[in-house]
Amino acid sequence: MISRLxxxxxxxxxxxxxxxxxxxxxxxxxxxxxxADKTEYQRKDEYTAEAFYDRAGIWAEFGKIVCxxxxxxxxxxxxxxxxTTSFHGEEKQQLLAFKKLLSEHYNKPQHVLCxxxxxxxxxxxxxxxxxxxGLKLPKLLDIAGKKPxxxxxxxxxxxxxxxxxxxxxSIKLLAALFDIPTxxxxxxxxxVAKVYWEEKDLERIKIYCQKDALTVAQLLLKYxxxxxxxxxxxxxx
Length: 237
What we know:
Blueprint: E1 10-19, H1 29-38, H2 40-43, E2 63-76, E3 79-88, H3 91-105, E4 112-115, H4 118-132, E5 153-155, H5 156-161, H6 171-177, H7 192-197, H8 202-223, E6 234-236
Parallel strand pairs: 1-4, 3-6, 4-5
Antiparallel strand pairs: 1-2, 2-3
């Protein structure tokens, strides 16, 4: 039950991903062919594998994480506040820092990860890239053999489905429906690869990622029938 969730036990997160390389031609020939094979169904006859490479960031085998933003609620004498921070830069170092956070502060049975479309994208992407980088999985992502109710993953998109397996709703739409303030002049998720590879503006991506992690937290508050966290109680660390 959503009403029973203890917000202080939840780590909210969002990730931004891009193609592994700036250009399709940077892939070795074998990986070029494997990418063509992997994307054949999505491309059909409309695009060549090279023309489709700007979307490679959605697959962990051909993409990489450029930012992981996390946030959590905590109570102070002034009331509830929300703190958010980001890991960005070299991918392996991001993953090591994220793993350290989980192992030191989110290692109890009551701890939960929460993201929008996290079960389909963020959580498996982080897990796959962790293994590709030669690291061991943190406990909260090591879910092999676990029963569904033993997996401490919360997904705000799945919660909105109410059992409808076909229903996809973007976080942008839900933010508009629930009057959750979001920046109107920010980049779109489809622009992240261009901002990273062409503009080389990782700071802009970090800000965008942090605000998405905050929106996930605000959305869960709305699901619980609670008030949004006020801007004055939000800390970007």
